[in-house]
């Protein structure tokens, strides 16, 4: 990032990261924030690839699904090139395929489908009955209560200024992992405004959809992504956008891990508005492997 972007808030940095540079028709370049990460955050690549695809589709059609594979860790020190293939432009649907490239190698691939808004049958599952975010501890209270004796990597994670605030419904199990569970509910909220533009709204939702998902697969075994003895990496990611939404309030991310096997954990997530509207569904499989020297 440039010196100018270093002065941005965390949320402004996310938006700047998603605002790709157009190099040529169907070819875009994205950068990564220079925050000391060893590899690019998976949600960033999902969001950037979706933004690249969206910019090749007419403005009256919006993403309803995406399916993606992570192939190599992204290098945050160099730009990522996004090559878009226009696979189909139909009367109602458009299909795009995006390849993310660094150092001459494909690191990520995404296919997305777009549709005109149209009416039709409508139903959804119920949002879990959980406390509202105002009934839970905020991040400052969490820091005061839990971080004094937490491991250094946990303190660094929670003390870092982030674009997305999270409030786990069960904060004790989130930190202690003393009660393994295959389910978790987390309230999430952006720490700054997002343009009233569905391209940005969808890209930001895709960005945050990669957060905390593999936590629940590991929590089922009493560990977490912060455990230095566990190797964790996203392998694939799928997402369905059900209804238009605004990112100006808390969202409930309800997650479950129905299976783990073969050093892979599978998770599903549902994103609800505060009022209980299901706006998106997510599925992901990730590598969850004990390190060889453990």
In CATH terms, the superfamily of the largest domain is Hotdog Thioesterase
Query: Strand percentage, roughly?
Result: 35-45%
| Multimerization state | single chain
Question: What strand order characterises the main sheet?
Answer: 1-2-4-5-6-3-9-12-11-10-8-7
Say how many strands there are: 12
Helix content: 10-25%
Biggest β-sheet description: 12 strands, antiparallel
Cα separation of the termini: 37 Å
Q: What would CATH call the architecture of the largest domain? A: Roll
> What's the structural domain tally?
2
Q: What is the CATH first-level class name of the largest domain?
A: Alpha Beta
Topology pattern, helix = H, strand = E: HEEHEEEEHHEHEHHEEEE
Q: Uncertain runs with pLDDT below 50, 5 residues or more?
A: none
The chain-level mean pLDDT equals 90
Our Rg estimate from Cα atoms comes to 19 Å
How many helices? The count is 7
Shape: globular
Give the CATH topology of the largest domain.
Thiol Ester Dehydrase, Chain A
Secondary-structure-based class equals: alpha+beta
What is the secondary structure topology, with strand pairs?
Elements: H1 10-18, E1 21-24, E2 27-30, H2 42-54, E3 61-70, E4 80-89, E5 93-102, E6 105-116, H3 139-146, H4 152-159, E7 164-168, H5 171-176, E8 183-190, H6 198-208, H7 213-219, E9 230-241, E10 251-261, E11 264-273, E12 278-290
Antiparallel strand pairs: 1-2, 2-4, 3-6, 3-9, 4-5, 5-6, 7-8, 8-10, 9-12, 10-11, 11-12
Helix pairs in contact: 2-6
Please provide a written account of the structure.
By secondary structure, the chain is α+β, with helices and mostly antiparallel strands. The protein folds into 2 domains: 1-116, Roll (Thiol Ester Dehydrase, Chain A); 134-293, Thiol Ester Dehydrase, Chain A (Roll). The chain is built from 7 helices and 12 strands. Strands 1-2-4-5-6-3-9-12-11-10-8-7 form a 12-stranded antiparallel beta sheet. A hairpin with a 2-residue loop joins β5 and β6. α2 (42-54) packs antiparallel against α6 (198-208). The longest helix is centred in the N-terminal third of the chain and has 13 residues, at 42-54. The model has no long low-confidence stretch (mean pLDDT 90).
